[in-house]
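General statements about sequence and structure are easier to judge against a single worked case. Part of our work consisted of pairing the sequence of a single chain with a tokenised description of its backbone. The amino acid sequence and the backbone structure tokens for this protein are reproduced below.

***
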Amino acid sequence: MCDGRADKVVPRLGEEIARELDHLEASWPSDLPLGVIHADLFPDNVFFLDNALSGLIDFYFACNDMFVYDVAVCINAWCFETDGSLNITKARGLLANYAAVRPLSPDETAALPLLCRGAALRFLLTRLYDWLTVPDGALVVKKDPVEYYKKLRFHRGVADAAAYGFDR
């Protein structure tokens, strides 16, 4: 698949991915609240009409998984600027509004930075695969994997959910 070719996108990216996968595998939580999640709730999968939610699409990745993982996907998808910086106002708003409907447990809050890392790596890898394997002119729109590489690097520097504007 991408073996040996990730470094064409970012020098030493392959080594970095391997280290990150090892870290996530060793640290991934297994005891957080589960339920049906969308797992791909990006802006292009959400529709609004008159500033009100009017629809969701693309349930291809929907699954039974950690609720807070869906939050981590949303932070990655909705709360970063084009320059790769976290928009703390968006992140704080997302977390506060989520918690108003379903409060995060202390364990979920503690796991959020790790889950954000995992979500960033997931989308880095899928974009990297497409970037390296989809031929020009294909119907699949290739998206730059470096966007999620930058997000992953940001999340690695996060010590706790307060960095995302979360306050209990």
Notes: The first helix runs from residue 13 to 27. The helical segments are 13-27, 67-78, 88-101, 106-133, 146-156. The two ends are 43 Å apart (CA to CA).
